[in-house]
Amino acid sequence: MRIDVVETAEAPRRSFAGLEVIGISKTFGAVRALNDVTLRIEPGTVHALVGENGAGKSTLGKIIAGVIQPDQGQVAIGGRTVSMRSPRDALVHGIATIEQEISLVPGLAVQDNVFLGAEPHACGLVRRRELRRRWQMISDESGFRLDGFQQVSSLRLGEQQQVEILRALSRRADLIVMDEPTAALTEQEAHVLHRTIRSVVARGATVLIVTHFLKEVLALADTVTVLRDGKHVRTGPASAETEASLIQAMLGRDLSTVFPEKRPAPATAPVVLGGENIVAPGVRGVSVEVRAGEILGLAGLEGSGRAELARALFGQLKMSSGKLFIGGEPVRRPSPRRALAHGLSMVPASRRDDGLFLTRPIVENVSISSLADVSRLGVVRRRAETQRIAEVLSTLDVPPDRQRRPVSTLSGGNQQKVLFARAFMRRPLALIANEPTRGVDIGAKTAIYGLLHGLAEQGVGILLISSEREELIGLSHRVLVMCRGEVSAELVGDEIREDRILTAALTNTQEAESDSAWRGAGQPHPSLRNTIRRDGE
After folding, report:
1. Which residues lie below 8 Å from residue 256, measured CB to CB, with a gap of 6+?
2. At residue 325, does pLDDT exceed 90?
3. How large is the average pLDDT for residues 347-375?
4. What does the DSSP 8-state code read for residue 351?
5. Residue 222 · residue 47 · CB < 8 Å
6. Which residues are CB-contacts of 506 (< 8 A; sequence separation ≥ 6)?
7. Which residues pair with 226 in a beta bridge?
8. Which are the contacts of 361, defined by CB distance < 8 A and separation ≥ 6?
9. What is the CATH number of domain 19-251?
10. Cβ-based neighbours of 128, under 8 Å, separated by 6 or more
11. Contact 254/247 with Cβ under 8 angstroms?
12. Cα 360 to Cα 363: distance, rounded to the nearest angstrom
């Protein structure tokens, strides 16, 4: 009988002499994800893997974590070749992984998920008092503020990501592989995670981060490796890199500008999307107008009401009072069906949860909102459907031979393009784009920025909601800033600056000036505490 011993929060850390991947190659069908990649991860460092979607960075991270096995090449720890056929094998070698997709048990408490499979036992029973003590220790070390007794199913996505991180930390792993660890976190939660990573590295651990966020790489990593088209481009100190140099290495070409040239929106254009004194859950008396050809940015911290406003305008969230106008016409009893019928489309914040049917073909995902246009007597005319979709997808560089594939086979950036294609099929008057570049690489972001700019050039009014202030500044003609369910500022032209957006999001200048202090301390800003508490309810 074999018993695997998993290190827990009190077990000593093993001596870790670094990890090497040597000549690693991996093929999925006709796609060569990795091609003869060799690199070394030094002990006691933060090592970042960057590259476009499809560059092979997530595949390499999964090979190191034992999730998948390479076709060729080997992994060595301390100069000794090791075989890892599963994440369990990797854990025995001191490697823990945190996947981008949450893999928790929803019905269990937070602390039970953290120590799942490594609970302290006595006579076959879990020692609950000892488990609670270990939970308190790991919680204090991390700086995360989670209730160990709270059920995981009641947590926000960002909080569930924190549980995943705590589970890896509790194993006292020598090397922790993190795949997009901050993709689901708020800005403040990401700062807390960065502090936690520095803390565990200071205590002797090594962290490998697979990420799209270049600012995060430059602020956190000691070493950065760039992959492109499955090949190793270069590895070097992060201090020698800039965002521009990393982008050039990732794309293989100079990127003269990320954002298209911003042209003035016509001041006399008709209002295509309007709301008057909208009151809904999380929204308190907000009025908004989007004109044809205008990109109106909507900024605010997590829980400010910006997402709720978008859902209320699209009819997903019931308004208790207020008026909605689309194309100049009033919309009574708003609903998504009525919004679409009047000419309003929406790209949701979560393509997986709210946007796509992952197991269905691309064509079906694109046409789902426009079936009436390609049907007769309730029967879909497949030839008409295919022709319409081909026209739309050709503008998004999706080749015809891929259109019948499941949408789950696409990269995150191309999945996002499918959502835009669905909106194009409707020929909308207005579009709500909620976090349109979340979880995509810089190349896909640039393409999406071009799509938004092109729609505005065609006269579509766009309401752009983004957590990335650079996007709002680079794309928007005007920016509305929300705080606690209300519009706290409207910024136009040269007023659209990062400091002005942050000041309005925090409601006053004094709070904004304290931003650097609370970030460094890793604690919630005073103005965020009620918001964080509300979001966790």
Report:
1. none
2. yes
3. 74
4. I
5. yes
6. 301, 483, 512, 515, 525, 527
7. 50, 234
8. 403, 404, 405, 406, 407
9. 3.40.50.300
10. none
11. no
12. 8
pTM: 0.59
Q: What is the CATH code for 269-343+429-537?
A: 3.40.50.300
Contact (CB, 8 A) for 343 and 429: yes
pLDDT(382) > 80 = no
Q: Is the confidence at residue 387, as pLDDT, over 50?
A: yes
Q: What is the mean pLDDT of residues 284-291?
A: 93
Beta bridge partners of 434: 465
How far, rounded to the nearest angstrom, does the alpha carbon of residue 429 sit from its chain's CA centroid? 28
pLDDT range class, residue 397, cuts 50, 70, 90: low
Distance of alpha carbon 1 from alpha carbon 143, whole angstroms:
39
Are the C-beta atoms of 470 and 293 separated by less than 8 Å?
A: no
The answer, yes or no, to whether residue 12 has pLDDT greater than 60, is: no
Residue with tokens 């990593």: 221
Name the average pLDDT for the chain.
81
What the block records as the tokens of 92 is 């025995």
What are the residues whose beta carbons fall under 8 Å from the beta carbon of 339, sequence distance 6 or more? 313, 314, 315, 326, 331, 345, 346
d(CA 321, CA 197): 46
Q: Which residue has the tokens 């705080």?
A: 483
Q: Which residue has the higher pLDDT, 176 or 4?
A: 176
CB 179 within 8 A of CB 51: no
Cα separation, 324 vs 537, whole angstroms = 29
| Cα-Cα-Cα-Cα dihedral sign, residues 233, 236, 240, 246 | positive
Instruction: Return the pLDDT at 533.
Output: 33
Say which amino acid occupies 426: R
The C-alpha atoms of residue 217 and residue 49 are separated, in whole angstroms, by: 9
pLDDT of residue 14: 53
Q: What is the pLDDT of residue 497?
A: 87
Domains 19-251 and 269-343+429-537 share a fold: yes
For residue range 449-483, list pLDDT tens digits in order.
888 998 899 899 999 999 888 889 999 999 999 98
Whether 531 shows a pLDDT value over 60: the answer reads no
How wide is the angle at C-alpha 7 spanned by C-alphas 83 and 151, nearest 5°? 110
- Burial per residue of 279-294, b for 16 or more beta-carbon CB atoms within 10 angstroms, e otherwise: ebebbeebebbbbbbb
- Token pair listed for 204: 């002797």
Closest CA to 68 of 85, 49, 92, 46: 85
**Dihedral sign, CA of 375, 381, 387, 391?**
positive
Q: What is the pLDDT of residue 291?
A: 94
Q: How many helices (H) and strands (E) does the chain have?
A: 19, 24
Q: Which long-range contacts (CB under 8 A, 24 or more apart) does 288-291 make?
A: 288/313, 288/463, 288/480, 288/487, 290/430, 290/461, 290/462, 290/463, 291/265, 291/266, 291/267, 291/461
Q: List, in order, residues 6 or more apart from 239 with CB less than 8 Å away.
A: none
Class of residue 419 by CB neighbours under 10 A (exposed 0-12, middle 13-18, buried 19+): buried
CA angle 346-352-354, nearest 5°?
40
Spell out the domain ranges in the chain.
Answer: 19-251, 269-343+429-537, 351-427
